[in-house]
Amino acid sequence: SDHMENIYGYLMKYTNLVTGWQYRFFVLNNDAGLLEYFVNEQSRHLKPRGTLQLAGAVISPSDEDSHTFTVNAASGEQYKLRATDAKERQHWVSRLQICTQHHTEAIGKNNPPLKSRSFSLASQGSANSPGVQRRPSQNAVSFFGVGHHRLPTGKRVPIMQPDHLVDVREMMSQAEGQQRDLIRSIECLPVSGHLTSLDQDLLMLKATSMATMNCLNDCFHILQLQHASQQKGSLPAGTTISWLEPKISLANHFKNGAAQNFPAEINKPASVREEQSIAEPCQLTREPEEINPDEELEDICDDKEDDLGAVEEQRSVILHLLSQLKLGMDLTRVVLPTFILEKRSLLEMYADFMSHPDLFVAITNGSSPEERMIRFVEYYLTSFHEGRKGAIAKKPYNPIIGETFHCSWRMPKSDVAADAGTMFFAHSHSAHSPSEQVTLPKDLEGQADPDYYTVKFVAEQVSHHPPVSGFYAECVERKMCVNAHVWTKSKFLGMSIGVTMVGEGILHLLEHGEEYTFSLPCAYARSILTVPWVELGGKVNINCAKTGYSASINFHTKPFYGGKLHRVTGEVKQNVTNMVVCRVQGEWNSVLEFTYSNGETKYVDLTKLSVTRKRVRPLEKQGPFESRRLWQHVTESLRDGDIDKATEHKRALEERQRNEERLRAETETPWCTKYFLKDGDGWVYHKPLWKTTSAAQTQQTDSN
């Protein structure tokens, strides 16, 4: 082919999450089917720093930007590369794809069909035979003899007919059986020797095989859709075909022996002994503590989550973990490795969703029910960007039952949007004077400075199984508060993890007698074998029964075919007239576009919105079960990059929680929450503003 020329040049290569991107000189050797790279062009005559076999590889342009692409070799090795611009990326991708196709077809000519090949290890001899001892260059794919196929050249692919689809289904069933044989063969290997069941290449096969079968099932569904469209006409323009939920029920064969045993801990640090010696929570005082905002100081902690630290070195740990998981498995009781943790608790993450308190307080300043609903939607959509620390998916600490987190925010009253206009472009620079006098409870009088508003926040882990968190925030001066409870349900989805946020929140605007109910979207950690990233998905509804206004917001996940990342769309409407008063579209972590009923359109760049730092008490003033004090040794170890020490502290906390739970079960002692009370299926703050304000008004009426 005229396009089979050797090409070379500089590309950026993602080395690891510590070193990051580095310039390397790449050479595409078409004759040998190799992609090689060197430190620079001058070292080209030396041995390559790295080499990838392109036969059977997959070349994929990335969704992250227009410059990045990946080369996924059949061996499981991956190069993540970045060109200088989109044109150069297309040049490299097209040449690599041509070379890959050529050498893949060449292998197909020299290999028998897949159905005549065996995935069994029986033909390879016993574990001690020479046949099992791999040569250094022999990878797991070649060891198991995975063949490649190609369509006859020069022939047009016929339209898929129903009987052909039956044949495809039959071939997929055969592939499922071969995949099960593959897994059983791996698990029958010894745990030591030249080829073991914990070999990294074999773990890669084991971890990805189920995701591959799920992918094949999705592709089969697409073929069915295409066939249906040929019967009824083509699919409408702009149609996107999304990935489906798993439909293939694979056998429960993902067992890899007993759980990892850790050596007995000797000479534990004093901090670990302290973590294990904290008394049974119900023996501590469970009386609610009133936090004085004046004791809280502006947070100077700035733990950026820019990378995954030692993820490259811990790759085998991830593969070993994934090899034991099944599609749809609940991950609630699965202990994940420490190096993927954020340096904050889930309870603090909920607080970080409140990082724009000026927009929160401005909701009640809306002059009409329509404007207040629109303001709430505007605030709601701005909260997720700051709630995530960086683009890479990392997991906050699982809160210990009884764990709490307290903080507050202060903002000048002049920074809060006044009555007229929307929040982002109509900030008033004079203090807002509400038309209705706010009646405060006596115990809250005098706490608010006349020059600023204060928003107080408290969160508590009210249940361990299932894991349920309650959180509450209030602004006494503006007579508004929000109460929510969230049950986090996580599932393994192959090459991603899905977290469903089950629960409900209610925003109370007491000046207007309005309640706004809302839910939260699902979250997904994608590409967990490479560089994991976060996306949100699902439909969220916001309703106000009193005013008849509602909002419907869709967080769109990246479709399999077409579409963009992090897309969100929504609309606000009046239910009685069914009239849409506001539409929104854009990306929840970038730019949002709001179009209002008067024809006005406004854009919000979330990356440029000012963030108000939360105020927290110093560690020495925090209780033993407040998040930062509870996890302080884990956090310090993660900051120092000492993963082993962080794991030791984390395990001590989890072990203590299990012992306490066992003791409560044996003594039939119920758990006593501190700040939240069970209310039907939900949890409500013990002293919500709507109760204290109502009591104060009743007391004032009686005195008159």
UniProtKB/TrEMBL annotation:
It is found in: Endomembrane system; Endosome; Golgi apparatus. Residues 104-136, 643-663 are annotated as: Disordered. Its main location: membrane. One of its GO terms (molecular function) is sterol binding. GO terms for biological process: lipid transport. CDD domains: PH_ORP10_ORP11. GO terms for cellular component: cytosol; endosome; Golgi apparatus; membrane. Signal peptide: none annotated. SUPFAM superfamilies: Oxysterol-binding protein-like (SSF144000), PH domain-like (SSF50729). Keywords: Acetylation, Endosome, Golgi apparatus, Lipid transport, Lipid-binding, Membrane, Transport. Coiled coil: none annotated. Pfam families: Oxysterol_BP (PF01237), PH (PF00169). Belongs to the OSBP family. Plays a role in regulating ADIPOQ and FABP4 levels in differentiating adipocytes and is also involved in regulation of adipocyte triglyceride storage. Weakly binds 25-hydroxycholesterol. Interacts with OSBPL9 to function as lipid transfer proteins. Heterodimer with OSBPL9. This is Oxysterol-binding protein. It comes from Ptilonorhynchus violaceus (Satin bowerbird).
